[in-house]
Amino acid sequence: MSAPPRTVPVAGRSLPSTPWLVGTLAVLACTVVLAHDRVVPLGAPLWGLFRNGLDLLVYRSGGATVLSGAGLYDHALHGGMWYTYPPFSAILFAPLRALSPDLTSLLGYLANFAFLYLVVLLCWRRLGYPPDRRLYVVSALLTVIFSWLEPVRTTIWLGQINLLLMLLVLWDLGRPEGSRLRGFAVGLAAGIKLTPALFIVQLVVTRQWRAAATATATLAATVAVGFAVLFSDSWAYWTVTLRQSTRIGETAWPANQSAAGVIARWLHEAEPPRLLWLTVAVALAVLGMTAVYLAHRRGQDLLATTMCGLTSCAVSPFSWGHHWVWFVPLIVLALDRALRSSRVLSFALPVALAAPLLCWAHPFPDGVWAIGLFMIPAPAALAPIFAAAYPLLFVVTAVVVVATLARRGAEEAEVSPEVACDLPHITTRSREGLGPTPVA
Questions:
Q1: DSSP 8-state code for residue 72
Q2: Is the CB of residue 83 less than 8 Å from the CB of residue 73?
Q3: What whole-number distance in Å separates Cα of residue 276 and Cα of residue 260?
Q4: pLDDT tens digits, residue range 221-248?
Q5: Please, are residues 376 and 370 in contact by the beta-carbon 8 Å criterion?
Q6: What global pTM score does this model have?
Q7: β partners of residue 436
C-alpha cells in the first residue's frame, strides 16, 4: 500500500495581534518567576532551581573516564551516581572535563533554557506560524511559563539532557520528507540515550524508509564509535549493564513514572511481575503507535512525533518525571487549537493538560521537597492516581487522539495538515486562497 499524500502547514497563520495574548502570558510568566523565588526558593540549598546540576556533573565525570581510562560502569561517579547511558555519550561529554564543576552547571542551566525556547519556537513553526516578532515574544514567555512544569523544572534543576534530545528529534523529523540525511539526528539522539530509538519505530510505522535507514545507520555508527574508543566499557554496557535497570533506581519509586513503576506501586511490589509488565508495555506501545500512525496519515506530524515521545516514556522500564518533557509540544498543540477557536472554553484543554504537570511543591520537616504531583501526599483514594499521573495522562490523551482521528474520513489527509492539529476535537477549516509553505 502506498503512503498517503503528504501535505504541509498553511501559510498566512499568525498569532492574534490583540494585546490580550501577550498580556496574559506576561502575567503568567511573572507569576512563575515569583513561584521560583517564593514557593521553592531559588537560594534553597540543593532544591533551588540553580542549586543542583547533579546529573550534568555525572555526565562530566563520565566524560572524564574516557580520558583517564577508568571504568565507566564498574564504579559510582559524582555524588555516588552510576553512569547509565551508552559509552558514545561519555565520549561526547569528555570535553566537559576542561570546565570547572561550577561553570559546567552554569552553562547547563543556560543551555536548557535555550533548548526549551527553541523547542517551543520550533513547534510553532511546524504548525505554520511565521517567524515574526510576536512569535519570538510569545515563545520566550512560554519558555518561562513551562519552566514551572515538573518535567521541565527537574530537567533544568538536574542539568539533564531531555530538552536537547527532544530538540534534535523535533528538528530532524520536522524537515520535509526526502531532506538530506533526515533521520540522522534521531539516530544520534538514540546513540546518546536509548529511549529515542522508538522514533525509528515511528519512521518504520509511517513508512518513511529512507529516514528510518539513516537513523538506524547513525545509531549503529555511534555504537561502533563506542567500541572503537571504549571497547571494554562498550562490551560491558551492551552485554550486561543495559539490562540492569535498577542502576537507575528502584522500580517502585514514585519518581518512576513509567508503566513498570505504576504496576509495582499498585501491587505493592519492589518489581512488577515481568509478564504483566511486558503485556501492559506492549499494549501501551500499540496504543501510542496507533496514535502516531493515524496522526501521520492525517498530516499531523508534530502530533505524531509528540505521541511517539510520550509513548517512549510510558513503555520504558524506568522513566523519571523529567523524561516526560514531551508534554511541552502537546501543550503547544492544544494552545494552537485554542487560539484558532472562537470559544473561550477551548483554553480549558491546555490548562487541563498542564495541571497534572505543575510543580505542586510540598516541603517536609527534614528539608526535603516533593516537587511533582506524583510525590505529593494525597488522600488514600487519590494516592494511586497521583502516583501514576503522567502515564494516566498519556493513556487518556492517546485514547482520545486515536478515537478522534479514527473517525475522520480519508479526505482529511488532503487538507493542510497541522491546521487540523487539534488534539481531541480536530476541526479542519478551509483556508481559501492560501498556498502551502515549506516547513522550517
A1: S
A2: yes
A3: 9
A4: 999 999 999 999 999 999 998 887 667 7
A5: yes
A6: 0.90
A7: 10
